[in-house]
């Protein structure tokens, strides 16, 4: 059997270390590179997120503005529908008012009642409208317009029926004038609504949208008392161009004012060292009146010297009112003395109706 022999020869070293093998640091280098890539990706992600938010934010702002403009446009469209319907009623009303003498009393009542109902329905729908935030300040003007038109036609209806029924003409004149004035104010309220809304449309670059118009009383002079008197006289067969003269006392107040009444209805005034009377006179004709005298007489019961004070209104146009203050009268004090005050305005030349030219007040003034 052969025996293997170990080499007994000595081993020698060169004294040089072997070069490091490159593959030994491969794991560490890959880790560094991965960290760098992660950092870059994070930075890029942040930049992308910022850009996205900026772009998205601008888009949201633009969308919000677009939505608001669209809501304003839709509000204008809905408003125009109501205004147009109201305008139709206004056209019907003006035609009936101008030709009221050609229709029967029952026909006039039926048509005017329907107009009032139509106005009520339009006003009711206006209150249900969806109002955009940038138009909330406008809505009250639109609602006021439609409410006044309902009230104005209703007052005209009541007054013209009184005229056709030969009832109190004086009351009818006052109510008709008030109703027509409501319509005049409604026209003014609508013009303010239109102007403001069109300004908002222009600011939103929607100036191509137009706001509907509607006028019920083209000439506001038609609402004054003198014009209404002439209108009613025309219905009764009198000439429209006829001169009408007439003044009336439409108000009287005292200072101090009444604080109580006796069981018999006599006014009770508190004690005062001064006493004034304010008298308001209206020209209810259709002519200018000059030097209209107003006389206040004070008599004391059971005894006393009559007192009288006179003033004049230099000039009073048709439909105008003037107030005069009387300060020279000295009423008696004490509950045992009654002061009987009588006021007379006019009459003016050519005046035929004089039952509204005077008024009377009986009062007692408490003792000091």
Question: Would you write up a description of this structure?
Answer:
The protein has 368 residues and is α+β, with helices and mostly antiparallel strands. It is built from five helices and nine strands. It has helices at 26-98, 105-126, 139-164, 169-203, 225-235; strands spanning 247-255, 260-261, 267-269, 276-283, 289-301, 307-316, 321-326, 338-345, 358-365. The strands form two sheets. The chain has a six-stranded mixed sheet with strand order 2-3-9-8-5-6, with no helix packed on it. Strands 1-4-7 form a three-stranded antiparallel sheet, with no helix packed on it. The longest helix is centred in the N-terminal third of the chain and has 73 residues, at 26-98. Mean pLDDT is 84; it is low at 1-7 and 237-241.
Proportion of strand residues: 15-25%
Low-confidence stretches: 1-7, 237-241
Order of strands in the sheet with most strands:
2-3-9-8-5-6
* Largest beta-sheet details: 6 strands, mixed
Topology:
Layout: H1 26-98, H2 105-126, H3 139-164, H4 169-203, H5 225-235, E1 247-255, E2 260-261, E3 267-269, E4 276-283, E5 289-301, E6 307-316, E7 321-326, E8 338-345, E9 358-365
Parallel strand pairs: 3-9
Antiparallel strand pairs: 1-4, 2-3, 4-7, 5-6, 5-8, 8-9
Helix pairs in contact: 1-2, 2-3, 3-4, 4-5
């Amino acid at each position: 059997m052969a025996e293997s022999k170990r080499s007994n020869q000595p081993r020698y070293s060169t004294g040089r270390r072997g070069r490091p093998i490159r593959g030994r640091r491969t794991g560490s280098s890959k880790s560094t590179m991965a960290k760098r890539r992660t950092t870059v990706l994070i930075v890029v992600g942040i930049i992308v997120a910022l850009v996205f938010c900026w772009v998205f934010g601008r888009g949201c702002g633009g969308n919000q503005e677009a939505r608001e403009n669209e809501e304003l446009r839709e509000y204008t469209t809905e408003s125009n529908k109501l205004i147009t319907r109201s305008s139709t009623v206004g056209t019907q009303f003006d035609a009936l008012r101008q030709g009221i003498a050609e229709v029967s009393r029952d026909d006039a009542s039926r048509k005017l009642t329907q107009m009032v109902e139509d106005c009520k329905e339009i006003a009711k729908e206006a209150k249900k409208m969806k109002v955009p935030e940038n138009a909330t300040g406008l809505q009250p003007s639109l609602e006021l317009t439609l409410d006044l038109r309902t009230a104005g036609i209703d007052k005209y209806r009541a007054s013209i029926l009184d005229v056709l029924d030969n009832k109190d003409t004086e009351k009818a004149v006052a109510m008709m004038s008030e109703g027509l004035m409501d319509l005049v104010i409604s026209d003014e309220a609508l013009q303010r609504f239109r102007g403001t809304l069109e300004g908002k449309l222009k600011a939103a670059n929607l100036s191509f949208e137009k706001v509907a118009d509607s006028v019920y009383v083209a000439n506001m002079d038609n609402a004054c008392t003198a014009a209404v008197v002439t209108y009613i006289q025309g219905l009764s067969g009198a000439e429209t161009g006829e001169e009408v003269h007439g003044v009336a006392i439409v108000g009287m107040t005292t200072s101090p004012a009444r604080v109580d009444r006796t069981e018999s209805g006599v006014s009770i005034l508190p004690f005062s060292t001064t006493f004034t009377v304010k008298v308001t006179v209206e020209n209810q004709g259709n002519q200018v009146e000059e030097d209209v005298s107003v006389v206040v007489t004070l008599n004391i019961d059971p005894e006393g010297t009559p007192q009288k004070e006179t003033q004049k209104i230099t000039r009073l146009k048709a439909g105008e009112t003037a107030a005069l203050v009387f300060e020279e009268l000295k009423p008696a004090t004490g509950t045992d003395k009654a002061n009987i005050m009588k006021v007379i305005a006019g009459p003016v030349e050519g005046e035929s109706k004089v039952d509204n030219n005077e008024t009377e007040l009986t009062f007692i003034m408490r003792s000091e």
